[in-house]
Design a protein that fits this description.
- The complex is a heterodimer of chains A (294) and B (282).
- Chain A is mainly alpha-helical.
- Chain A is 73% helix and 2% strand.
- Chain A has 2 domains: 41 residues, no CATH class; 237 residues, MetI-like fold (Orthogonal Bundle), CATH 1.10.3720.
- A two-stranded antiparallel sheet of chain A has the order 1-2.
- In chain A, helix 3 packs across helix 9, helix 9 packs antiparallel against helix 12 and helix 11 runs antiparallel to helix 12.
- The two termini of chain A are 21 Å apart.
- With 282 residues, chain B is mainly α.
- Helices cover 70% and strands 0% of the residues of chain B.
- Chain B contains 14 helices and no strands.
- In chain B, helix 1 packs across helix 13.
- Classes of the chains: A mainly alpha (294), B mainly alpha (282).
- The interface between A and B is large, with 107 and 107 residues.
Chain lengths: 294, 282
């Protein structure tokens, strides 16, 4: 690991400087994670009087549970939906901004502020817009002949949470795409234009391939966002319903742990989620290493 | 821009204007709703033009709260949010600065271990270890307190890495010069490293302030006393009641107030915001 050529010599000071960070990490991160790991091998009776060591029973039950399969599937649909929608919208906007000259800054300001809006607040706003009795969007959809009701329809509920979660993420992706587009050498695009390639052809043969590292990075970040940061969107709007159709993994951990009080299962789910985060983090860091060599 | 295609330029502007409108639309409707009276929401469709009740609604929500939902005045919740956001942002920056300083400028046993311990926090978001973390905080007696709201979220691998990267780019000559002049590590840190890190601190502050203000799950768990509710989590409780007894004007006024501070911070400090966002992902 890198250090400075010139360093300070002091035996106690570095430990003292690291102490606050490490203390908080150990007490609020490592210890609870260890507890979750331990708890996932235990089974408690309903009153918390007796705990038994049950090996992998919690995991076996979990993976045999159709509700968990459903939650996994819901998470996959939700994450890919959010990633796809917010990436495509952001890319189109970034390409458009790349073509404007003077107005680029103004447009950027007008497009980036949703990043600051809390996911819960975004959820409530879209919930209001889509409210089946007074919302404006169901009213418009009804004129088109579609009867919107996210309280009964699983598909409608899923669309609602995907839109609410993507809305907030567009600004983030937009900024990274704008930076990615600015890094593409102008000479390449100009050479292609001189050879007679139109804007569409240039996009698919030059710009999009050169943007692929950015796109891949954003894909991972968006999946992480959709899996872990959207708890508030779900909790503030559908609460996992109707009929479990928006019950993503993170929400299920909370529901089983705090409302269902099924600690063993909740702990096992936590461990599975940690494994998923670790895999995604490793992928993300691998990508960064590759970019540095490039 | 490569060639002049007026039609494509026009299309670009149209796409951008459409994008801006779609992005702003939910907020527009929320603002409009917050200016209307309660009866305007019985007619079957959300009004799209402002009403006359702006001052009345905001005054009521800020200082007396909505009695039926049992919520405290929003001014109190916003103060709580502000305390929490500032504590998290400043706390994270402070402890990350000193731990990055220790890791870069000293050589000591277990340095590698300390680095990896901090790194691991990246892989353990609150959402995946909710129940045991709640238990720890409850055992420490930190429920319903500002300390419980902020301290468990203060550890930050991202901020530590950012400062570490930055410190590695600070020329060694500065350190040598400082040492020759007889400055100890703390004096060097305070008089040279801190002033150099100003832009990085500002950039991180924007990101972390938003992060702290927008926390939802954590305040939901550790507060049961309405005196400690934060505004972002408080909305949910109001909206739940509003579903039975529609008070959409009040809910939307709260929504507008809840997003105002972070949005203002982003717009005012846009340069730092973009820098912080892009750098903290490296």
């Amino acid at each position: 690991m890198q250090t400075k050529r010139t360093i300070f010599g002091n035996r106690v000071l570095p430990y003292a400087l690291l102490l606050p960070q490490l203390a908080i990490t150990c007490v609020f991160f490592l210890w609870p994670a260890g507890q979750a790991f331990r708890q996932s091998f235990l089974r408690e009776d309903a009153f918390g009087f007796k705990t038994r060591f049950v090996w992998f029973e919690n995991y076996e039950k979990l993976f045999a549970d159709p509700l968990y399969h459903n939650s996994l599937w819901v998470t996959v649909v939700f994450s890919l939906g959010v990633a796809f929608l917010s990436l495509v919208a952001a890319l189109i906007l970034a390409l458009a901004v790349d073509r404007t000259l003077r107005a680029a800054r103004t447009y950027t300001t007008l497009l980036v502020w949703p990043y600051a809006v809390a996911p819960a607040v975004a959820g409530i706003m879209w919930w209001f817009l889509f409210n089946p009795t007074i919302g404006i969007l169901p009213y418009m959809l009804e004129m088109l002949g579609y009867n919107w009701n996210h309280r009964n329809s699983s598909v409608d509920a899923m669309i609602l949470v995907i839109i609410a979660a993507s809305w907030k993420q567009i600004s983030y992706n937009f900024l990274f795409f704008v930076a990615g587009l600015a890094a593409i050498p102008h000479s390449l695009v100009e050479a292609a234009a001189i050879d007679g390639a139109g804007p569409l052809k240039r996009f698919f043969t030059i710009i999009f391939p050169l943007l692929s590292p950015t796109t891949f990075f954003l894909l991972v970040v968006n999946v992480v966002y959709a899996m872990f940061d959207t708890f508030a969107v779900i909790h503030a709007t559908t609460e996992g319903g109707p009929a479990q159709s928006t019950n993503i993994l993170v929400y299920k951990v909370f529901e089983d742990g705090f409302i269902g009080l099924n600690l063993g299962s909740s702990a096992a789910q936590s461990v599975v989620l940690m494994a998923i985060v670790i895999v995604l983090t490793v992928i993300q860091f691998r990508w960064i290493e590759r970019r540095v060599q490039y | 821009m490569v060639e002049n295609r007026p039609l494509l330029n026009l299309l670009s502007h149209l796409v951008l204007i459409a994008g801006v409108i779609v992005v702003a639309f939910p907020v527009y409707v929320a603002i409009i709703a917050s200016t209307r009276g309660p009866t305007d929401f019985l007619s079957g469709l959300v009004p799209l033009l402002p009403g006359p009740h702006t001052l009345e609604n905001y005054h009521r929500i800020l200082f007396s709260g909505v009695s039926t939902s049992g919520a405290p005045p929003i001014a109190l919740m916003m103060t709580n949010s502000l305390v929490m956001a500032l504590a998290i942002a400043i706390g994270k920056i402070a402890i990350s600065l000193i731990s990055a300083f220790a890791i870069v400028y000293f050589r000591f046993p277990f340095r590698q271990l300390a680095f990896w311990t901090i790194f691991i926090t990246l892989m353990l978001p609150v959402e995946v270890r909710i129940v045991p973390t709640f238990k720890v905080v409850a055992d420490l007696g930190l429920l319903n307190s500002y300390a419980g709201l902020s301290i468990p979220l203060i550890a930050s691998a991202t901020a530590t890495f950012l400062f570490r990267q930055f410190f590695l780019t600070v020329p060694d000559e500065l350190t040598e010069a400082a040492r020759v002049d007889g400055a100890g590590p703390l004096k060097f840190f305070r008089d040279i490293l801190l002033p150099l890190s100003r832009t990085n601190i500002a950039a991180l502050f924007v990101i972390l302030f938003i992060y702290g203000w927008n926390q939802y799950l954590w305040p939901l768990l550790v507060t049961t006393d309405p005196g400690y509710y934060t505004v972002v989590m408080g909305i949910k409780r109001m909206a739940e009641v509003a579903d039975a007894v529609p008070q959409w004007n009040m809910v939307m006024a709260t929504v507008v107030l809840a997003m105002l501070p972070p949005v203002v911070v982003v717009v005012v400090m846009q340069r730092f915001f973009v820098k912080g966002l892009v750098e903290s992902e490296k």
